[in-house]
Amino acid sequence: MPDTSPLAVCVGEGLVSLVPAVAGPLEDCRTFHRSLAGAEWNTAIALASAGIPTAVVSRVGDDGFGRFLRAELRRHGVDDSAVEVDPDAPTGLYVKELTPLPDGSVDGTMYYHRRGSAGSAMSPATIAAPAAARLIDEASLVHTSGITPALSATARAAQVALFSAPRDGRLLSFDVNWRPALWRGREDEGRAVIVDCARRADVVFCTAPDAEAVFGTADADRVRALVPEPRRLVVTRANGATAFEDGERTDSSALDAPVVETIGAGDAFAAGFLAGILSGLSLTGSLARAHRIATRALASTRDHVG
After folding, report:
1. What does residue 279 show for φ and ψ, rounded to 5 degrees?
2. pLDDT at residue number 260
3. pLDDT for 256
4. Burial 198-233 (b: 16+ CB within 10 A, else e)
5. Has this prediction a pTM greater than 0.85?
6. Looking at the predicted structure, is the pLDDT value of residue 32 above 80?
7. Per-residue confidence at 276, pLDDT binned at 50, 70, 90?
8. Fewer CB within 10 A of the terminal residue: the chain, N end or C end?
9. For all residues of the chain together, what is the average pLDDT?
10. Closest Cα partner for 297 from 100, 105, 21?
11. Distance in angstroms (rounded) separating the CA atoms of residues 249 and 243
12. Can you say whether the dihedral through the CA atoms of 202, 167, 131, 195 is positive or negative?
């Protein structure tokens, strides 16, 4: 029988993450482990792990890192047919610095090396390419984030095209993902872009710190008052989340689980919530699924679930 499961498509840049084998200052680290990273790609892998047929629309370089990233998508069951290969620009990467914390976990700091990358050259043509257009047309949900428009003028135009296209019942999901390093010197422009995207999306995710930085408040009810348009809005905190759906408001607590490092947990949380929506779960059920999948990302220094 044909697969009638909802299809999710994640649009954004994939990166190679170089993670030190031992926590400490970068200048003292001799060995690094290679891993897949990038907010939308992390979400795609977590969606696939939840049983949702998922694809990625993006660009990588014609290099070893690009081939590694595409192979990782396939290994995790994510469709990479709409990941373009750029013959000239390199695959983006970032280096993670791990700082030990007293509770035995580590704090991760990211140092990006993505300027001029293949992913930053995403454009409306990327969205309109036959493979990408077919997947988006078939999708029940498209997910992207505030990182994409920060990468370049063409990547921002690609996201504008994505938000402007007829949806025909398709859900559009947006994760704020405020990255001040990517908006340096144009922070006000970045906030305006992200607020506009949030107001035009159907599902919005935002951490409390990002809400404070972008909307001027970390209070979930005030954020909802400022962004009333999305049908679903989720504001996450370290100890839980508040979700709004139409006129309903639901609070949930994070699960008590071991924490190695938190980077990528928000992407996994978003995937769990979206998987719940696509599976027909209630707001409460979608939040519970989100917390369960987030704990899997907290268990390692990788950015995505294993």
Report:
1. -90, 0
2. 44
3. 64
4. beebbbbbbbbebbebbbeebbbeebbebbeebebb
5. yes
6. yes
7. very high
8. N
9. 90
10. 105
11. 6
12. negative
**Sheet of 8-11, strands arranged across:** 79-86, 54-61, 8-11, 141-145, 171-175, 203-207, 232-237, 240-245, 248-253
Region class of 93: left (phi > 0), else alpha (psi between -120 and 50), else beta = beta
Residue type, 61: G
Cβ contacts of 112 within 8 Å, gap of 6 or more: 92, 94, 181, 182
Query: Could you write out the DSSP letters of every residue in 265-305?
Result: HHHHHHHHHHHHHHTT--HHHHHHHHHHHHHHHTTSSSSS-
Cα–Cα dist 239/146, whole Å = 23
Whole-angstrom distance, CA of residue 273 vs CA of residue 279: 10
267 is catalytic: yes
Asked if residues 243 and 287 have their Cβ atoms less than 8 Å apart, the reply is yes
Burial degree of 27 (CB within 10 A; 0-12, 13-18, 19+): exposed
Q: Which listed residue (79, 80, 210, 267) is catalytic?
A: 267
- The fraction of the chain above a pLDDT of 90, given in percent, is 74
Strand partners, 236: 207, 241
Residue partners of 214: CB distance under 8 A and separation at least 6: 176, 178, 191, 194, 195, 206
H/E stretch holding 119: none
CA distances from 42 to 50, 124, 239 (A): 13, 23, 21
Residue that wins the pLDDT comparison between 256 and 75: 75
Two structure tokens written together for 284: 């409460």
What's the first-to-final CA gap in the chain, in angstroms? 29
Instruction: Provide the sign of the torsion angle of the four alpha carbons 219, 143, 126, 304, taken in this order.
Output: positive
